[in-house]
Amino acid sequence: MEMKQTLYIFIFVLIFAIFPGETVASQFDSFLPDELDFDIIFSDIPPEFDFSTATIFSFKKLPYITEESAMKLISLRDSLSYGYIMNNYDEIDGLSPMEYAVLRQLSTHKQQSSISDLSGSLRQGYIHNPQTEDISDSKYYLKAALSTSENLRITCIGERDANEQRAFDLFSANVSASFDENRIKVILGDYRHGFGQGLLYSRYGRNFGDGTGIMLRDVSRVENTSFDESYYLRGSYISINRKWITSQVWYSLRKLDATLNETGNAVTLRDSGYHFTDSNRNNLKEQILGTRFKTNPLDGLSCAIAAALSYYSPSLAQKDGEPYFHDLIGSTFHHISFDGTFQKGASTFFIEHVREGTDDHASISGLNIKKGTIKTTVAFRYFSEGYWAPRSGGFNTFGENSNEKGVYSSLQTNLPHKTQLNVSCDLARTLYRRASTLLPDSQQRINVVLRKSITKKYNTWIGYRTADKYEKDMRRWNCRLGMEKKHWINNKMRLQSHIAWSEAKDDGGPYYESAIDINGSNLWWEFIGGVFDIPSYDSRYYRYEDNLPGRGYTLPVWGRGGLFIIVAGYGPLSVRYRYCDSDMMDFSQQMAMQLDIIF
Asked: How does 76-93 read in b/e, with b if 16+ C-beta sit within 10 Å?
């Protein structure tokens, strides 16, 4: 084992010395949260997206792209060129880490043109672990879409998870139609909407380590395009826009997976999307009826009120002998939500307040200020001890949308000498405790990232993060220092390299990575090699890994070892191989293949 690890280090350090360049994910790899699911985020990037003709409305349909960023991208596109921006997306200033991730995925898409009003796409892929010969450990997925201009669109999604006996564990489909110059939209099938601050319904989670980009807005893409089988509704959705009033009505009827007790009541909802052969399936019926009215009575002012009724059969019951501070009890749940934004000059105030029944409630409110190169946000939240909503994605440090209050603040600014500073701080406190509950009373998270551009080719950054859980000696901190460089050869090949140090609790080690990007007219490929000597799991190094188009991973490494990744594509076919091993991690391999057809 020692001989093999020494060989890893020698080979990859040699590659680093020969090929100096920039990191594979330069603008968003200093601190990536481990809870991000890039597959869900990238599922909303259409394979036929055309950057050269995209409008602000088209950009806003993409995940995490704000109107401000869309205007900046269009301005750069019109003044430079599509090819330059896609090859140098990491040089665009002022975007959030998630926006850089979305742009990187867009850069892998091959632009297509259609000679008729009918267009479509088909994506199918296969993921396999070579360490096992059991085919049940593999995954197959497909996504098909067919559209006629902007008026009618059909989407079908299928996936077979590991350990599943059925051909498709997940099958999702929807038909979307627009009428009256897009003022009326109707969806039949599966959909995911979101509004306000996500306390009642949310389409995307939020990466609060990014800083100032936390304020949600009404999502413009309502159809379900994600392989996540837990958070979409199934039924019908109607939106009508008339002058300064927008009305929405939705109805959903789904069968969910649950654990039933001896009396037949549901005590645990299964939301992981993975189900084994001995688990119950589709034994809980969920019905949801909701409506929302949004108005823009004044310039810069937007406010809305929503109501939802959720019914479950069999009813939800309390679990016995488990240390949960709140269990869902009953069969019927009522929610009323108010949300709004008010923009005045450089300041935007946002709020959402939700009442569940008569007792429980939740609120998020805050202020976002953008002035020159300075962006700052402060937000407050409160979840009563029993608050719960069926498809919520509200901001919550402890991971449950109940029993917490907290404050979040962030700052992003450009400093002199091409230096950018991002700071965020989150403070949270539980509202009450049980003797059997092992959660801390309070928690604090701080992220600080300072990035400096030395020249057009060289960048350096330093990042510091703490996670404190008071009164239990559970404080954890992590510090990272990195340097990056890139180099283009004939505008077709890019040599990249990255060196970093990751440390926690006075115990740390280095991470080295090098890569070669080659972008031809039909063939493209990327070779990535890395070595690391990180002495503990606490000081683990998270990195975003290049993946097949539309997919992405955020995986940590620790111990002493190395990794090797190759991603290649020719025309519609993409393949990927990953190898990673260290003395503290389980050895892992993965092979994947994907076919993308666009017409």
From this structure: bbeeeebeebbbbbbebe
CB 227 within 8 A of CB 159: yes
pLDDT in tens, 564-589: 999 998 888 999 999 999 999 888 88
pLDDT tens, residue by residue, 432-447:
765 455 556 788 888 8
DSSP letter assigned to residue 136: G
- Residue 389: other Cβ atoms inside 10 A: 23
**Chain CA centroid to CA 369, Å:** 24
Cα 469 to Cα 335, 397, 425, 440, 466: the distances in Å are 32, 11, 14, 6, 10
d(CA 447, CA 209): 6
Beta-bridge partners for 286: 254, 312
What pTM did the predictor assign?
0.84
SS3 453: strand
C-alpha dihedral sign at 276, 279, 282, 286: negative
CB 206 within 8 A of CB 18: no
Does the pLDDT at position 131 exceed 80?
Answer: no
Amino acid letter for position 173? A
Written as six digits, the tokens of 56 are: 């602000």
